[in-house]
Design brief:
Elements: H1 4-37, E1 87-89, E2 92-96, E3 103-107, E4 113-118
Antiparallel strand pairs: 1-2, 2-3, 3-4
Length: 135
């Protein structure tokens, strides 16, 4: 059984831990918001929390969109339905595949060269019970 003093110390420590943790979350959220507010970044799937999928960039517009050409391509090697869009932060594009859920970091300043690749260990026995394709 804890004494009253020990209970107060425990409560104080838990409160301090909560506030330290909450301040870290606020920093992470403000860092993410700064990336979202920067039109040269695409840090979340929809571009912003309003899900507008709109970019303020003006390099591509109605007058030149028809002149676009492929600069480079990248194949994940996975032939299932890719449902997630890439994220771009700085000169790095992050792409993920459907099952087996491989994640790539591509260098946009070097024709999409693979910077790193993460291949999680997946159990192929889950494929028959997945919904909506194995994404």
């Amino acid at each position: 059984v804890l004494s009253r003093e020990d209970k107060m110390k425990k409560s104080l420590l838990m409160s301090a831990a909560f506030f330290v943790g909450a301040s870290g979350m606020a920093t992470a959220n403000s860092d993410l918001q700064a990336l979202i507010d920067d039109p040269t970044q695409w840090a979340i799937q929809t571009g912003d929390y309003a899900n507008t999928r709109y970019s303020e960039l003006e390099q591509i517009n109605k007058d030149n969109v028809g002149k676009l050409q492929v600069a480079w391509t990248f194949s994940t090697g996975v032939l299932r339905g890719h449902e997630g869009s890439p994220l771009v932060i700085g000169d790095i594009m992050y792409v993920h595949t459907p099952f087996p859920n491989i994640v790539y970091a591509l260098d946009l300043s070097n024709n999409g060269k693979i910077i790193w690749k993460y291949e999680p260990k997946q159990d192929p026995n889950v494929i028959p019970v997945m919904c909506c394709d194995t994404v």
